């Protein structure tokens, strides 16, 4: 029986509820009735990518480098628990919390005044944009 679950990148789902339900279903299939082994869940994300932004936003966490069991690892912690030094190391010395509605891109760089796309709030918005439907930018936020 399988006892390892490997999740690669954040799942694109229409709603937070769909996202959580899909993750629980994947993990639940390994933690099924009759499973006698420990179940190991691996959640892979690539550093300094949009995937990390999505994961952090969905889980209300921040990716930081910390010592865990005498080994240096990248771990997700609640934003309120992250130190300013950890935040700065996470995205470099010019750290500013990513906020697509304040004219800041994922790396904290100011993009105010540039002709840019607004990040879609859900996969459904992203699909509509890809399909070429014209919508008001405020509706996508």
Tell me the layout of helices and strands.
Elements: E1 4-8, H1 16-30, E2 40-44, H2 50-59, E3 61-68, E4 71-78, H3 84-91, H4 123-130, H5 137-140
Parallel strand pairs: 1-2
Antiparallel strand pairs: 3-4
Give me some keywords for this one:
alpha+beta, 5 helices
What does this structure look like?
The chain has 141 residues and is of the alpha+beta class. It has a domain at 1-44. Helix content is 32%, strand content 18%. It has 5 helices and 4 strands; from the N terminus they run βαβαββααα. The strands form 2 sheets. Strands 1-2 form a two-stranded parallel sheet. The protein has a two-stranded antiparallel sheet with strand order 3-4. The longest helix is centred in the first third of the chain and has 15 residues, at 16-30. The N and C termini lie far apart (44 Å). Residues 98-107, 111-120 and 133-138 have low confidence and may be disordered. InterPro entries: P-loop_NTPase (IPR027417). Residues 87-112 are annotated as: Disordered.
Outline:
The protein has a domain at 1-44.
Share in helix: 25-40%
- Nearest-integer average pLDDT: 66
Output the number of helix runs.
5
Morphology: flat
Proportion of strand residues: 15-25%
H/E series, N to C?
Answer: EHEHEEHHH
Overall SS class: alpha+beta
Largest sheet descriptor? 2 strands, parallel
Uncertain segments: 98-107, 111-120, 133-138
Query: What is the tally of beta strands?
Result: 4
| First-residue to last-residue Cα separation | 44 Å
Spatial arrangement of strands, main beta sheet: 1-2
Q: If you compute it from the alpha carbons, what radius of gyration comes out, rounded to the nearest whole angstrom?
A: 18 Å
InterPro entries: P-loop_NTPase (IPR027417)
């Amino acid at each position: 029986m399988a006892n390892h679950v490997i999740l690669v990148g954040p799942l694109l789902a229409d709603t937070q509820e769909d996202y959580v339900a899909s993750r629980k279903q994947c993990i639940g299939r390994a933690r099924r009735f009759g499973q006698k082994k420990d179940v190991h869940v691996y959640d892979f994300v690539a550093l300094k990518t949009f995937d990390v932004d999505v994961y952090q936003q969905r889980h209300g966490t921040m990716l930081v480098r910390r010592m865990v069991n005498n080994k240096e690892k990248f771990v997700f912690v609640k934003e309120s628990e992250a130190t300013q030094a950890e935040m700065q190391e996470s995205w470099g010395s010019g750290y500013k919390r990513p906020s697509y509605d304040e004219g800041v891109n994922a790396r904290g760089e100011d993009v105010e005044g540039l002709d840019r796309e607004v990040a879609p709030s859900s996969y459904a918005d992203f699909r509509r944009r890809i399909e070429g439907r014209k919508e008001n930018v405020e509706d996508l936020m």
